[in-house]
User: Which sequence fits this backbone?
């Protein structure tokens, strides 16, 4: 089975653009997941408030759909999302008064780590850094929420259940070419 480079990070950090750039530079395939489509097919929107049971149910569907995309890879690939992102969004939805089935949450987290270790050879965390521009149909420009997700993602990337090398792009690296070069340099050092 082929493994890929997975980009993690909050929405609106340039993950998809960077994934395309890395794929072009390395001659690997870009694999895009369809989180929004999974929500829409199930009559939900990612930003709407939902109880924990609904959230964990839809998040499992999101991971399952992404797994199908990654399973089709016949060669190394680059993806603009990983189960790390999916875990972060799930955890970010839990607040002080949220009623949580902790066993269900632990099962979901465990599954996400397994999937990440199975399909990826390394991860790149893309932190909030690029200028935010409003675009119709794109996720909200809530800097505090994006920062919350960023911290969750970096924490998940340091969890001992993750068995992959992780590169965290510095916030001051915002130029597209410089971002690609950082990823390429790190790849060369690992081989």
Assistant:
């Amino acid at each position: 089975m082929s493994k890929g480079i997975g980009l993690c990070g909050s929405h609106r950090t340039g993950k998809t653009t960077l994934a395309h750039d890395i794929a072009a530079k390395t001659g690997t395939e870009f694999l895009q997941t369809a989180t929004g489509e999974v929500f829409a097919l199930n009559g939900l929107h990612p930003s709407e408030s939902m109880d924990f049971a609904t959230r964990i149910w839809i998040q499992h569907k999101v991971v399952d759909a992404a797994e199908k995309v990654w399973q089709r890879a016949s060669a190394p690939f680059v993806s603009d999302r990983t189960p790390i992102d999916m875990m972060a969004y799930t955890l970010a939805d839990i607040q002080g008064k949220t009623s949580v089935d902790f066993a269900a949450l632990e099962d979901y987290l465990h599954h996400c780590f397994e999937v990440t270790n199975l399909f990826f050879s390394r991860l790149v965390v893309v932190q909030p850094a690029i200028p935010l521009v409003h675009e119709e149909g794109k996720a909200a420009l809530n800097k505090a929420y994006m920062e919350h997700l960023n911290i969750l993602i970096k924490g998940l990337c340091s969890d001992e259940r993750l068995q992959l090398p992780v590169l965290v792009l510095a916030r001051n690296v915002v130029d597209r070419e410089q971002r690609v070069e950082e990823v390429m340099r790190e790849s060369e050092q690992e081989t």
Q: What stands out?
A: The first strand starts at residue 4 and ends at 8.
